[in-house]
Amino acid sequence: MVDVGAKDETSRVAVASGSIRMRGSTLQLVTSRTAKKGDVLGVARIAAIQAAKRTPALIPLAHPIALSRVAVEFDVDRRKGAIHVTATVACVGRTGVEMEALTAAAVGLLTIYDMLKAVDRGMSIREVRLQEKRGGASGHWVRARPAR
Predict the structure, then answer these.
(1) What is the pLDDT of residues 99-143, one digit of tens each?
(2) Residues 15 and 86 sit within 8 Å (Cβ to Cβ)
(3) Rounded to two decimals, what is the model's pTM?
(4) Residue of 8, 77, 114, 120 marked catalytic
(5) Calpha distance 60→115 (Å, rounded)
(6) I need a labelling partner for 36 at 20 to 30 A (CA). Which of 13, 49, 65, 91 fits?
(7) Is 114 assigned a catalytic role?
(8) What CA–CA distance (Å, rounded) separates 128 from 148?
(9) For the segment 66-97, what is each residue's pLDDT rounded down to a tens digit?
């Protein structure tokens, strides 16, 4: 574990995102809330929040951090047959929350997969990545948007 004891406590925020693609009929189960396992996005949101809080138990050498905020948003993209997740994690501390945001996004997507795998094993989780981080000595970083 890296020694962060000499670092100043600062406000830190990280945003991570990812997507899961599925058949249109599977997406319809999510939006109509008729999946056999229940409210897919509601359960995935709770799983993502729990994952952010438990990151040090999952990622070796990650610091336990007192999180002040975990927000998880889902965007249903019917045109692409996808659900996009964005996880925002914040704290006031000596180390960043990038791993917590990435873990939240990944576990949210894995939960969606788990709740729907009986009807669509071909779902594909894609592009789990850090979008932004603020705070600490390295300052503010934002992922560059690809040219269209």
Answers:
(1) 999 999 999 999 999 999 999 999 999 999 999 999 887 889 999
(2) yes
(3) 0.91
(4) 114
(5) 27
(6) 49
(7) yes
(8) 20
(9) 999 999 999 999 999 999 999 999 999 888 89
Yes or no: say if 85 and 74 are a contact pair by the CB < 8 Å rule: yes
Both tokens assigned to 101: 């945001």
pLDDT at 5 over 70: no
Q: What is the DSSP string of the chain?
A: ----TTSPPEEEEEEEEEEEE--HHHHHHHHTT--TT--HHHHHHHHHHHHHHTHHHHSTTPPP--EEEEEEEEEEETTTTEEEEEEEEEEEESS--HHHHHHHHHHHHHHHHHHHTTT-TT-EEEEEEEEEEE-STT--EEPPPPP-
So what's the pLDDT on residue 134? 93
